[in-house]
Specification:
Shape: globular
Number of strands: 9
């Protein structure tokens, strides 16, 4: 085992030992806890993910009058995205906050969120997420995977940054754009005539600087925090996919709590979700202003171009529809 894995394993074991101590003292909020329950993320501290996690921990403490405690471990302290999902499913780490993208390999129906260009704006997306029947469907996907879904926040929509101006559908053609290694994402950009290139995120800035790639796609927060806009002339509001952030808990752990404690968890999660969305909106506006001040131009696509993109993306719709529960596909796209 290499040094990195040894350190990660030691951190995970430490958190698990504390978690076991909590279980030994009982879970009732009336009795309190001797140690805090761990909540882990793979995201840096200056992100909406971290704000979401911290607000949830704060609300649990407040609503339980200090009897229930959660300790947040950010920045892959207890493991990367896959490690955290496995540890949460096994019950070693009760709480995880993370993006839906790495969860698709564990719960295939979450590929519903890979359907491109369903919503033009984040408000439309949130209205769909908060629709009780749809939220319950998504919740069932997590339950089947061994998790309980407590809340869904976001970092807004994913947008494209590029050195080639995009006003029409034809302007996407031939652009070398970095994407995650996700078959649905790759298929979408190919459908637009672009040349998608999977690449480690750590290589993106240099790739843009050295013109190995022309473009990349991410939410505004990632584009600014990693200063990618410094190497780009344009940010195009393609709004092609949502960047959703989920708060999940081990399903057995959640159901073993008393009804009173579950109600506290639910209310804390609802408050944290609303807060995270508010902070996301605020931060996006700040990031956009920072981009504009740098001289990079932000382009809003017209309705005609958006409709043409949707038409081109229909093969991707069909591809995803075949891989997930059809009723879930219909519920998301209608």
């Amino acid at each position: 085992m290499n040094r990195k894995n040894r350190n990660k394993t030691a951190s995970l074991l430490c958190a698990c030992m504390l978690f076991v101590c909590v279980l030994c003292t009982g879970c009732s909020s009336s009795d309190g806890q001797r140690y805090a329950w761990p909540l882990a993320t793979a995201s840096p501290e200056d992100t909406v993910t971290q704000l979401f996690a911290l607000k949830f921990a704060e609300e649990v403490d407040r609503l339980s009058a200090g009897h229930m405690k959660i300790e947040v471990y950010p920045n892959s302290t207890l493991g990367g995205d896959r490690d955290l999902l496995e540890s949460c499913a096994d019950g070693d780490i009760p709480f995880v906050v993370q993006n839906t993208a790495p969860q698709v390999s564990f719960m295939k129906d979450l590929a519903v969120f890979d359907i491109p260009c369903v919503f033009d704006h984040v408000d439309e997306l949130r209205e769909k997420i908060d629709d009780p029947p749809f939220y319950d469907r998504i919740g069932s996907v997590y339950t089947d995977g061994g998790y309980h879904l407590l809340g869904i926040a976001d970092q807004g929509m994913r947008v494209m940054s590029t050195n080639r101006k995009v006003d029409t559908l034809d302007d996407f053609k031939g652009q070398k754009i970095r994407t995650m290694e996700n078959s649905n994402h790759l298929a979408f950009w190919k459908a637009l005539g672009a040349s998608p290139t999977p690449m480690s995120f750590s290589e993106v800035y240099i790739g843009l600087q050295q013109h190995t790639i022309d473009a990349q796609e991410n939410p505004y927060e990632v584009i600014v925090s990693n200063r990618l806009y410094e190497q780009q002339d344009y940010v195009v509001e393609t709004n092609h996919l949502p960047h959703l952030i989920t708060l999940i808990v081990n399903d057995t752990f959640y159901n073993d709590l008393s009804q009173e404690d579950r109600q506290i968890m639910d209310e804390a999660a609802a408050n944290a979700t609303a807060y995270a969305r508010e902070m996301s909106d605020q931060r996006i506006e700040e990031k956009k202003e920072q981009i504009r001040k740098s001289g990079t131009q932000i382009i809003e696509l017209d309705e005609n171009t958006r409709n043409e993109i949707r038409q081109k993306a229909q093969p991707v719709y069909d591809q995803i529809k075949e891989s997930i529960e059809p009723s879930l596909f219909e519920a998301y796209t209608q």
